[in-house]
Specification:
Keywords: Isomerase, tRNA processing. The chain is about 20% helix and about 35% strand. The protein has about 300 residues and is of the alpha+beta class. It has 3 domains: about 80 residues, Pseudouridine synthase, CATH 3.30.2350; about 140 residues, 2-Layer Sandwich (Pseudouridine synthase); about 55 residues, PUA domain (Archaeosine Trna-guanine Transglycosylase, Chain: A, domain 4, Roll).
Length: about 300
């Protein structure tokens, strides 16, 4: 009896459709790739579209490290209305005329939300509070607080300010924004806090993730395209794109794959995960400098 061919190890960069959870996309990819070994590097809200990085087979071991990289978004923030979820999926809880808010006030409020800030995630986020997902507590009507967390918003830009009228007749402002931020930053929390600072409330009405670390939208495929042709970025290429590269000779490669902790060059100290390659260009492991030696995070060779 012939065994089923195993899909190659690597990453799939998906352009997630709106209305799908990240788990929905993983489930779909399991069917397309014909393997259970599929995972994702960081969730994307159901309303949002854009870059979702999936790992197939051995590449699932990379995902936890990729999840920590910088992300980039394009979105629309509506000033003048707040919602239960801080985005357009939730019920509107207040409406305030935002037509008098000036561009100068918007820019000043955006500046306060740029750089290293403390952010309180949305109550309907997937953050765990005492072991229970925040959105589950919120759904059950529980009263609770989420502690603020440090995040970095390296860029927050407003490209356009549009006058609009909400369905209930309230004059609102729609801001077209781009955000570059650290992992764990909630864009809908930025929308909520921007509106709160301006005194009119705010929520996110559209969001598209355009980059996760080095992986961009121009390299992403829709689920329909992947159904036609499964485009998997080989694991070595994926690792070389995302992490600093350390090429070792054959002797060191052998020692590393046998579990020996190699001395690491000083240049890699404090740089986080480093991808190790042998002389043939094979990706051997993801390591981190620890007291001058290579501590293995995941072995592939």
């Amino acid at each position: 009896m012939t065994s089923k061919p195993t899909p190659p190890d690597g990453l799939v960069i998906v352009d997630k459709p709106s209305g799908f959870t990240s788990h929905d996309v993983v489930a779909k990819m399991r069917g397309i790739a014909k393997t259970r070994r599929v995972g994702h590097a960081g969730t994307l809200d159901p309303m949002a579209t854009g870059v979702l990085v999936l790992g197939v087979e051995k590449a699932t071991k990379l995902l936890g490290h990729l999840a920590l990289t910088e992300k980039e978004y394009l979105g629309t923030v509506r000033l003048g209305q707040t919602t239960v979820t801080d985005d357009a999926e939730g019920e509107i809880t207040s409406s305030t005329d935002a037509s008098k808010v000036t561009r100068e006030a918007v820019d000043a409020a955006v500046a306060k939300l740029t750089g290293d800030i403390m952010q309180v995630p949305s109550k309907v986020s997937a953050i765990k509070i005492n072991g229970v997902r925040s959105y589950k507590r919120a759904r059950e009507g529980e009263e609770f607080d989420i502690p603020a967390r440090p995040v970095t918003v390296s860029s927050f830009r407003v490209y356009d300010v549009r006058d609009a009228v909400a369905e209930d007749g309230t004059p609102v402002l729609d801001l077209v924004v781009s955000v570059v931020c650290s992992s764990g930053t909630y864009i809908r929390a930025l929308a909520r806090d921007l509106g709160a600072d301006l005194g009119v409330g705010g929520h996110l009405t559209a969001l598209r993730r355009t980059r996760v670390g080095p992986y961009r939208l121009d390299g992403a495929r829709t689920l329909d395209q992947l159904q036609q042709e499964l485009a998997i970025m080989p694991i070595a290429q994926a690792a070389a794109a995302a992490f600093p590269r350390w090429d070792v000779d054959a002797r060191r490669a052998r020692l590393l794959t046998n579990g020996v902790r190699l001395e690491m060059p000083d240049e890699y100290a404090g740089r986080g995960p480093v991808a190790v390659f042998d002389p043939e260009g094979r990706f051997l492991a993801l390591v981190e400098a620890h007291r001058g030696k290579a501590k293995s995070l995941a072995v592939f060779g």
